[in-house]
Amino acid sequence: MDYSLDFEIGIVDFRNIIKVIKETYDYDFSDYALISLKRRFELVIQLHNIKDTDSLITKLHEDKSFFQSFLQEIAIESTEMFRDPSLWRYLRDELLPIMIKEVSKPKIWIPLCVSGDELFTLVILLKEQGWLNLVEIVTSCMNDLIIDHIKSGLFRNYKIEVSEDNYGRYQGKAKLSNYYRISNDQAIRDSSLIKNVNFVKQNINFDNSPRDIKLILCRNQLIYFTQNLHDKTLKIFSDSLIAGGYLILGVKEQTGHMGASYFRLVNEAESVYRKI
Questions:
Q1: DSSP readout, 56-67?
Q2: What is the pLDDT of residues 142-175, one digit of tens each?
Q3: Which CATH number does the domain housing residue 222 bear?
Q4: Same structural domain, 144 and 59
Q5: Based on the number of CB atoms within 10 Å of its own CB, is 9 exposed (0-12), middle (13-18) or buried (19 or more)?
Q6: 16 lies in the same domain as 109
Q7: Are 266 and 238 contacting, i.e. CB atoms less than 8 angstroms apart?
């Protein structure tokens, strides 16, 4: 969703915002890409009609409930369901059948989940293949507001058309509309699909990351990290994966030089890696 912003945060103020978040809540955004994160801070100021950065800093410091909303509003949502349909076909036709044979009830982790689009895409794939009870899914989110939003099944209406098109190109077994309903002009997904998903609250430092994971699905997030956080995150992912586990990044993302110590590329077109 595009917003026209008429407020710009200076670099010093930007750093002061990061500082108060770190000191008050121990969420460290200092290794996030500056331009993207600054724009999201500016969006929050506009959405809440906050007059200046000093007022934002005061509100962040004093109002814990506002900080929870703030986290939800600055989080990066995936754009639609079944994004990059060829990846989901690859998962369905090649990777997941191998995983299910290799490991009893393999664990799949979706970190930094915000909208639930990737999660619902995954569970629809699994349901249609009869695999929903053959895997364990762990989804980590920055706070309870995001978890509650995903569990509610709410699906942004502007994503419906492109998601329907993606699902058609994925060549699913039904219609995407079978998995959501419209109530009071609002699309709501079938939340029973995710009833067995293990939701975990986890901060941006990836503290207490899950272990014994067979597949990590983390697409289009590393592009918002500095190189330092990018490399640190790949190390965390490697530690979370079992030997031979898989990591899927966005098609424009790569593990880079540091990641080559942990992963080897197995599908360049879909940006799929396997732990060494």
A1: HHHHHHH-HHHH
A2: 999 999 999 999 999 999 999 999 999 999 999 9
A3: 3.40.50.150
A4: no
A5: buried
A6: no
A7: no
Task: Return the SS3 of 26.
Answer: coil
Residue 159: inside a domain, yes or no?
yes
- For 258, the domain range is 85-275
Residues 6 or more apart from 118 whose CB is under 8 A from it? Answer: 78, 81, 83, 110, 217, 219
Assigned domain for 210 exists: yes
The structural domain count of the chain equals: 2
Q: Which residues pair with 155 in a beta bridge?
A: 187
Query: Are residue 70 and residue 107 in the same domain, yes or no?
Result: no
**Contacts of range 119-122, beta carbons closer than 8 Å, 24 or more positions apart:** 119/150, 119/194, 119/197, 120/81, 120/155, 120/179, 120/189, 120/193, 120/194, 121/81, 121/82, 121/83, 121/88, 122/217
Q: Under a CB-based contact definition with an 8 Å cutoff, are residues 119 and 137 in contact?
A: yes
Tens digit of pLDDT for each residue in 75-129? 988 789 999 999 999 999 999 999 999 999 999 999 999 999 999 999 999 999 9
